[in-house]
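Meet our chain:
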Amino acid sequence: MPPRLTILVPTYGRAEFLRGLLARLGTQIARLPAGTVELLVSDNHSADHTPMVLAAAGRSFPFLRVVSPPRHVPSAEENLAFALPYCRGEHVWPFGDDDEPEDGAIARVLDLLAAHRPDVLVLNPRLIAADGAPIRDRAVKMRQPVLDWPFDRLVAAIGFKGLAACFTAMVMARAPLDAADWAGHLKRSPIYAHVALFLDAFRDRRCVMVDEPLVSARQGGTGMEEFRRFAAVAEVPLLHPWVGGLLRHLHALTVRGIVPPDFPGRVVEPEADRRVRLLPYILIKACEQLCLWLDGRQPSQSLSAEDVDLLGTVLASGIGVERETGRRLCETASVVASLLPSPVHPGLPAAHALELLTADERAAFEAPLAGWARDRIAAAVAAQDPRSLTRTVDYRAAVSLLDILGGNGRNAAPGKAETASTLAGLLATVPPAVAAMAADALAAALRRRTEGLAAGIEARIDPALQADGRSTRDGYEILPLGGVVVGIRGDHVLTASDIDDLDCIDPAGCGSAILVADGEAALYRQIGEQPAPADAPDAELFLGYRLSLWRGRHVAVPVDRGTAGDGNDGSLSIVGDRTRLRAAVLAARRAADPAFTSMEDARARIAAAYRPEELLGVFDAEWYCAANPGVEPRMRQLGCDALTHFCVEGSASGLSPGIWFDESWYRTAHPLVARGIAEGAWDSGLHHWLGLGRALGLSPILWFDADGYCAAHPEVMTALSSGQAASPLDHYRTVGAARGWRPFDLFDPGWYVETYPDAAAAVALGQSPLEHFLRHGRAAGYGVGPDFDDGLYLATNPDVAEAIARGVVVGALQHWLQFGRQEGRRGGRVPRLARLRRRAATNPSGNRSDPGPHGAGAGRT
């Protein structure tokens, strides 16, 4: 009668680990009835004292058998494949030679096999470090003690290269293993061949996973040096197991129908502190392999054309950003192959490869080549009879090179471009020094591009951070998460408990906010049954309606109802944003009651015009109340805060929201805005600036020159065009002020801080010099720099003092900036020579003296 279980230990060169393992296993087997369990070790021709360890164990444990392949094989998978036919048990338990069984583990496994009768029993081992220190109590988090899932679904949840690759976690029926095609899977790639074979052997068979460790799996036992040896023996690139090997296995499994077509895109791998998706992991490893190829320039490290094709094919089951990154990586690999000859990748014709380069990459590559070609043409023309040039080899080569590059003002010759050799062939036509310079420049540029691709995909390797790549369905974001598909309602903010639950391989979900199903079809049915969320976390009460996001639409539901219907009961539904929905609610209320008006009505009118986050960027409640003394009594009367008062009454009355927006000046400086307000196109100048003026780069205050700021600092336009800053003023507040840049030509930040001690103290606390001037310095009569003299300007222009007295302007500098400069008035700017003479006369020592409240340029020397 065959044993119930064979414990198979493939081993190579780990005698000390093996000694302890055999002692633990042998002791437990000896306690069981004779013949119940056999112990089989396959020694892969170890060079250490493993044979002595096996001989000693054989004398103690008669149930131990030892076999060895005819010769050393490069991988543990091949050793496992060799030994399986020697197993006699009904089930086989492969056991890593550096792993450790818990006391009683074998008896418990036999009990579990008898209780569940599975074809595959999967354990959830503890993870330990190479030195035996504990890493994690379980390899994966499980919510249920037992899972009865199809094997492909379980592998997608526990990881193709993760727990599914752990020999020790799998106890399998022997008959399906005997019938499996080991040779085919090993031929594709030995590493992870056993996972592919397990999926092949146990498809449509019963799989049970138990949340019991029973064993401790050692992590980090295989070092990179061992993989270097494997790569050298197998004659594959260093990272082949995680690029070409994985791609071949995944492709074969899907093409043969062993796993569903979307399987590669669903696999989630458990890492030390997070779960990561398999496809971006493969992409990152492919980027690393491409960098190794570029760094070493060794054909043995090249990505093969098959690898590149498979990468695009397998990534078809991924999200959009993975497919796009894979496409760009495949293009980059083909360009690298054109530059660095490879026996496994033919590369592209030179003209095609050049088309795939960015302008900067192409310029770096072409510069030395075009320079050499032009020099050779010039030398040939200067030294020879022009009629003989067509017979000069160097001249013809240089002209042909420029034709292909499209340089020297000429267009690329289509016929020559199509038949041109690879980039490597192109470089062979120029001197080695020139070719090396061009090749190095292009290799460096391609490496930077590859590193950028890897960094971009690294940010999306965590499933919880892939909101930009998920599909949506009726307001739910769809997230394939290993063995399940999760729907996260668009208005739901994930909590710590949600994330903890989703970290399990069998999450439970959370009401209607997070739905969990076995597949997309089942999830879509659940989504269709969900009512509009009456208690969504961001639900908003507005004019008797509850606003929320439901099934891809913004919905307003009367508060006396709990769910949204078809609109016949007063509910509203639009496609758009929350602002449009508020406007629709307001229109519905007015249509129902033409006399409707209230504080909510006023709030709604403003809310439809402004986004709260934009208002908060310019609104200053403390300044608003201090600058407008009548505001606080009115706030008490209305029972509202400062921001609500501004939205309800202040904006329409022409009040400014803070120091960063001057309503009165903005309307005066931009007459078309004032006209638009009068005609009802805009509620206020602020409404125009937030909606249009900011994007046009208009200055919102007199004390900031947007055009001059952008002209002085060209990088500002780059920041605006890339979306890093919304306006020149936003850039100044977040970047320019910290760098000491001037907000307008007369304002000298360094002078201002050195001159006024209270300004220096405010800057030390985080204010910018301009902010201090607008909050305090302007009212105190502070100067803005040595380039403007208030007293001289007032003496030269007597009418300005009258304008100040009437309240038209506050101070000489405001008059100069707002009116005087355009009117061509004189007397404000202080010539540099006069400034130097004045400093010498008033302060011979050269030290800056106390300038008084108006500053050094205020005419009080």
Notes: The longest helix spans residues 432-458.
